[in-house]
Amino acid sequence: MFEDTDIPSLLKTLDPKARDKLRRVLVHDLLDFLVLHKEERREALRLLGEIKATEPR
User: Fold this and answer.
1) Is the N or C terminus of the chain more exposed, i.e. has fewer CB atoms within 10 Å?
2) Closest CA to 7 of 19, 16, 15, 17
């Protein structure tokens, strides 16, 4: 769906209030998706764990 969208460029075109609203909507939609889809939730948590493990301390 968003493969061709350059999100950072899109965000630069928005004023701060619109950017915050978009962020809140995306987070809300992501949480709804993860609550409803157990396997995808597990995969997302696994990926977050891998990302955290590779971050320098």
Assistant:
1) C
2) 19
Place of tokens 């965000």: 11
Q: Are 42 and 48 in contact (CB under 8 A)?
A: no
Is there a contact between 34 and 44 (Cβ–Cβ < 8 Å)? yes
State the Cα angle at 44 between 9 and 28, rounded to 5°. Answer: 60
Contact 34, 41 (CB under 8 A): yes
- Mention every residue, 6+ apart, whose C-beta is less than 8 A from residue 44: 34
Q: What is the pLDDT of residues 3-19, one digit of tens each?
A: 666 777 878 889 999 98
